[in-house]
User: Fold this.
Amino acid sequence: MADAPRRYLRWFFASFVLVLVCAAAVSLLVDPYRLVGSPLGLPEAASRPRAVQQLPLVKRRGIARTAPRTLILGNSRAEIGFDPGATAWPSDWQVVYNAAIPGSWLKTDFATLRTALDSARVIHVVIGLDFLDFLTEDDEPLEDGDDAAYSGALTSAPALRTIFSLDSVADSVVTVLATRDPFAADTTSRGFNPLREYVPMVRREGHASLFTQRDTENARRYARLPKSLYRRGGETSAPWRYLQRVQDLAATHGIAVHFITYPYHAHTLELFRAAGLWPLFEEWKRVLVARLATGEEPRGCALWDFSGYHGYATEPVPVAGDTRDMQWYWEGGHFKPALGQRMLERVVGAAADDTSFGTCLSRANVEATIGAIRDSRSAYVAADPGTVASMAGLFEATR
Assistant:
């Protein structure tokens, strides 16, 4: 009888180890977060709907595995809008990896680029700049935390800790079940979010429902945003400091950086205006030009402006109940890869279908570009006064 406790403990320990081994084996084979890339497991083409739960780690490991020559950086607009597999990418820019992270800003972009240089020879970076990220409270602290919090060594230790977890097993089950769903969420092996889960939503409810939800969220957010691009006294705020850090890091490593402004849908632009942000939006471009467009760029345009009331941004939103698919936008916050393709064609110098879309901003043309956008807005107001009024009314209703 004295040996019974020992036998029980040995049995318990052996069972515990067996469970851990089985859990790790399942996670390694299914690879729910795309951390391993095992050729024996679930195919790379299969969706990983739970990868978003570990997205910073997924992106770091993805960079380490693919060793890209071109990085895409930015927030969710870039993650959803720029497909690394797009035909626009020149062969000498390959491999392309989409390292954009939803909700991130230039601090994250800087840390991602710095970390990527440990494992990849990056030669091009395409960075989406979001106007809203540059709005700053007057009393924003000068010190903004440790860069390391947004970075991380490209080692296997974090991946192993994630794999040896019960969450990983549960997410593996979700991943296997998702193989039967053609519209499962995914983060591809090259970091792209195809937003497939929106397809059945559009088929059921139409784009109007998605636009209404996003516009309402944006109106509430914009009403609370600060109305300054700098700290009190005109001091440089964190976004501008990290913009400079990205420039300096790229220059040190001989990387061509292609900054772009996003093609906000007209609904979003009208909400900027309703919130009193339009003067700052124009000033933001002037400051960007002063800091980025330093003359003749040795490896292409430094700053592309895709904002404004062009034919893409003014794409009509179907009325409620109309389930027809929009060509260029999912909703007011995110453009589709089809529009991203048009943008990339301009950035890489490919033969674009629409050479009027996108302006390489410089000191010589920034004021003319701002003036042209004002003129196109006037034309939009005349052509679609109902939408203009509805956006203004939405903003007032959500204040």
